């Protein structure tokens, strides 16, 4: 394992093995932290990606799947074949319950945080703001108190990890299709439907049979109100479409969590940090 900001270390990896294509996941994406530490994020996500592209070009590996904008690379060298996969919140787990998400420290994403509350590792979920201009009535499925407090919360697109894996396979097939002049193309992966924080909590409560206590916090700088993907292009050109909805995502996440309440660790190895916000 190497840091993509270390060009010499990357070069040594590419010199030791021939790679047909690269899937680039080595980026940071926590919204709150990115607002607090913008240079830290630029260094990892931009400078690191530039290093990766330079080393790939030096070793004639010019098939790339990344989330960064790479059109200028293709315009300068048409041998590159680049697919940009855009997606927001991968969730769920393998249906077997043996493979799932196990964040280090305090989870930065909603679903694993809700999961840890459900298994008793954390006391509550704190929501980042309840005054977004999103659909009214998302609190109608909850208590009278929540109907009063939560008229509008953030809406996001979520995607099951199995659907996401299939999306990457479809993209790789596209890259290696000799009849396809791929150039540099972006594709959105998701369900194409927005789901609010409260709807996620409600679905997880149904899947787990557990009550998820909620606390209302302040809005977080940098957070958008509504983000979800139009997936028509991926459906047409990659022959890919999400198969699973929020119900299946929560079902599989809970199956993993209930079988592995402390992830891949143990109660002694898991730090019980305080509440986080979403």
From TrEMBL:
Reactions it catalyzes: UDP-alpha-D-glucose = UDP-alpha-D-galactose
Gene3D superfamilies in alphabetical order: NAD(P)-binding Rossmann-like Domain (3.40.50.720), UDP-galactose 4-epimerase, domain 1 (3.90.25.10)
Biological process according to GO: monosaccharide metabolic process
Superkingdom field: Eukaryota
GO cellular component terms listed in the entry, alphabetical order: cytosol
Cofactor: NAD(+)
Pathway as given in its UniProt record: Carbohydrate metabolism; galactose metabolism
Residues covered by the NAD(P)-binding domain: 2-61, 62-252
Any GO molecular function: UDP-glucose 4-epimerase activity
Record has NAD as a keyword: yes
Keywords, sorted A to Z: Isomerase, NAD
Keyword Isomerase: yes
EC annotation from Swiss-Prot or TrEMBL: 5.1.3.2
Family membership: Belongs to the NAD(P)-dependent epimerase/dehydratase family.
Protein name, per record: UDP-glucose 4-epimerase
Organism: Triticum urartu
